[in-house]
Design a protein that fits this description.
Layout: H1 3-17, E1 22-24, E2 57-63, H2 67-82, E3 86-92, H3 95-104, E4 109-115, H4 120-126, E5 130-147, E6 168-170, H5 177-190, E7 197-199, H6 203-215, E8 222-226, E9 237-239, E10 251-258, H7 261-264, H8 266-274, H9 279-292, H10 296-305, H11 307-314
Parallel strand pairs: 2-3, 6-7
Antiparallel strand pairs: 1-3, 4-10, 5-8, 5-9, 5-10
Helix pairs in contact: 2-9, 2-10, 9-10, 10-11
């Protein structure tokens, strides 16, 4: 695919979704080549050649700051490009346009949907326009977390300790399932509405605020989830007990595709449906992508370290 045709495709998708998108290049780092996004706020992927890949073009999407989707998107980019596919990655600002892009066919696959609860409303909204290819990870959970030194152990104890946290729970992107669950269920059911504010933020901003509080040994409560690289052992964190279970039971991380994906790319759909990661494999992937390399290089190293797993998947 020529550079000009890629631009036209990305611009059209930008117009469709109505939000700023950033297409990540093969190295996975924003502005890695010293180039600024075009006037539409869209960066183009660089495939390294001007020809259409033999396997066709597949577009993967994830929400900026959601490192499970970022890590698995880069991983699938590495795996599929080795199999002759041309991969484009779209980094969106919110879950709503991501799922709209999937339903419209502008995005082929979101490789890390939280199901059946956290992203349930998006699955219900788009119904037959989406296809669940199955889960790659089991045991995902939403949490509210505090520093280990904070003298609060349960969400049920927060209403009596609002002053300790300046009446704030520091959240993430407003369109996330976690924020919907926390504001719509956790806050009213535990009686947090009167004395607490759920602060809309972003994953990056929330982590910066958390790290600043930890550095200064201050009390803070934030929206977190497992698996997530914040639980890398370097931070003194404690998940608050959820005695009434309002954050929901354990979930799975799934690959969700446009409804036509399995017909258009049956081989890839089969690989994705068979894909699974253990706790250790997932932790290694996210640590390499997010912390060690900050981009697709981490996924390349993971594939080198786990080539037998990849070979078994695609053969």
């Amino acid at each position: 695919m020529s550079t000009s045709s890629k631009f036209l495709k990305s611009a059209a998708i930008f117009s469709m979704l109505g939000l700023t998108l950033a297409a990540c290049g093969d190295n996975g780092d924003d502005d890695a080549n010293g180039e600024d996004p075009d006037e539409n706020g869209v960066e183009e992927t660089d495939d390294g050649d001007n020809g259409e890949a033999a396997g066709g073009t597949i577009t993967l999407g994830y929400v900026d700051g959601w490192t499970d989707g970022q890590s698995t998107s880069y991983l699938w980019q590495v795996i599929l490009e080795e199999q002759g596919y041309d991969i484009e990655i779209m980094d969106l600002t919110d879950a709503a346009p991501l799922y709209q892009g999937l339903a419209d066919g502008a995005i082929h696959v979101y490789p890390s949907a939280w199901l059946p609860v956290t992203h349930e409303n998006y699955m219900d909204q788009h119904g037959d326009d989406l296809e669940d290819l199955g889960h790659y990870y089991e045991g995902a959970v939403l949490t509210l977390a505090v520093p280990g030194y904070t003298d609060v152990d349960s969400i049920a104890d927060l209403p009596d300790n609002a002053d300790l946290f300046d009446g704030q729970v520091i959240g993430i992107e407003p369109g996330s399932g976690h924020m919907d669950t926390t504001s719509g269920t956790v806050f009213p059911e535990y009686g947090l509405d009167e004395d607490f504010e759920l602060v809309e933020s972003s994953t990056a901003a929330m982590m910066a605020t958390l790290d600043d509080a930890l550095d200064n040994e201050e009390d803070i409560v934030v929206t977190l989830w497992r698996p997530f690289w914040a639980y890398d052992g370097e931070r003194d964190l404690k998940d608050l007990e959820d005695p009434e279970g309002h954050l929901g039971a354990e979930e799975t991380l799934n690959l969700v595709a446009n409804a036509e994906f399995s017909t258009e790319f049956p081989e890839v759909a089969e690989w994705m449906s068979s894909f699974e990661l253990t706790d250790d494999e997932y932790a290694e992937l996210e640590d390499l992508v997010v912390n060690e390399y900050g981009g697709i290089e981490g996924a390349e190293v993971w594939v080198e370290n786990n080539q037998d797993l990849v070979d078994e998947l695609i053969n």
